[in-house]
Amino acid sequence: MPPIAVRTSGVRPVTEQRTSAQGTTGGRATVARVYDFLLGGEQNFAADREAARQLLQAVPEAADMALSARLFLRRAVQTLAEDGIKQFLDLGSGIPTQGNVHEIAQAVDPAIRVVYVDIDPVAVVASNQILIGNPTCRAIEGDFTRPDLILDALAGSHLSTVIDLEQPTAVLYCSVLQQVADDQVDDVVAPIRDLLVPGSAMVISHLSATITDSFGQSALDEGRSVYRTQAATEITLRTDEQLTALFGDLALIEPGLVPLNHWRPELSEPDPYATAPTPSPVRGAVGIRY
User: Fold this and answer.
1) Residue 277: strand, helix, or coil
2) What integer best gives the mean pLDDT of the chain?
3) Of 203, 170, 195, the residue nearest 87 (C-alpha)
4) Pairing relation of β-strands 137-141 and 170-174?
5) How many distinct structural domains can be found in the chain?
6) pLDDT score, position 232
7) Which of 64, 86, 179, 289 lies at a CB distance of 3.0 to 4.6 Å from 272, suitable for a disulfide?
């Protein structure tokens, strides 16, 4: 199972968080911090490292899957920035690491604006520490499964100068929608997706239902159990047809919905699955509203 940005039960208001995370023990593991550990980061705690250890026991490729997901995100952001999109909304953004969305996008155009949203306060604190001195980017604490609260926050005075959904915007759902049950996912995606104006984009990476072909049902069950018991997170797999439907009337750009290592691989360092005997068990795509 690849790591995914954190979601917990309950609803928190969307807030901007700039206080220090130092001194906290971390409590229960979060998937954002497990992801950080698998990518070699330092914004994680003992509970996260133990969860990562258990995950790697169940699915030894978990670290490769994390890196593959991160490289896809970077390639997608670079593509959209080069296509002229000036605003990026990263939902379930997780712990910042090298090659963040704003770093990739602003390397193309320094005027690009980015808002990161995550429910983990550690992720928000770490993001805002990186963003000090960058007036066109913000990180806020919020639940990506509550698009109503996110839309309210974007209309607020402190974010309306960063993201204006009446202008073309790229919305990123990278390795997070697998945390949402089938009977809820449309309610999570549609409210923001359907507001996107022509020229906007949506990026999705998501565990494929074909993952059992790669690892077998036993390893899949063990990986799911780690997320359930250590991070209070349930995992939902989806077919290619289900993932394509999440894009609504957005048109998928080439090469469509494909294993992550097949999505424009020439735009980044080699994907861990580039020479593997089987492709990545995670799918990715970018849709555009024309």
Assistant:
1) coil
2) 89
3) 170
4) unpaired
5) 1
6) 92
7) 64
- Residue 38 falls inside a structural domain: no
Q: How confident is the model at residue 216 (pLDDT cuts 50, 70, 90)?
A: confident
**pLDDT > 90: what percent of the chain?**
78
In a domain, 150, yes or no: yes
Q: Which two tokens stand for residue 117?
A: 């949203």
> In terms of residue numbers, what domain contains 140?
15-23+63-212+236-288
pLDDT score for 11: 35
| pLDDT single digits (tens) 179-205 | 999 999 999 999 999 999 999 999 999
Query: Is residue 223 situated within a structural domain?
Result: no
Peptide bond into 3 cis (omega under 30): no
- Strands of 111-266 (E only): list them: 113-118, 137-141, 170-174, 201-207, 251-252, 258-259
Confidence tier at 26 by pLDDT (50, 70, 90): low
SS3 289: coil
Contact indicator for 288, 200 with CB cutoff of 8 Å: yes
Q: How far apart are CA 176 and CA 38, in angstroms?
A: 16
d(C-alpha 50, C-alpha 54), whole Å? 6
Q: What is the pLDDT of residue 21?
A: 42
Dihedrals phi, psi of 231, to nearest 5 degrees = -130, 10
Burial per residue of 52-75, b for 16 or more beta-carbon CB atoms within 10 angstroms, e otherwise:
bebbbebbebbbbbbbbbbbbbbb
Average pLDDT score over residue span 173-183: 96
| Tokens found for residue 108 | 């193309």
Do the Cβ atoms of 74 and 268 come closer than 8 Å?
yes
Distance CA 99, CA 70 (A): 9
The CATH number assigned to the domain holding 145 equals 3.40.50.150
Instruction: Indicate the DSSP class of residue 267.
Output: G
DSSP 8-state secondary structure symbol assigned to residue 266: G
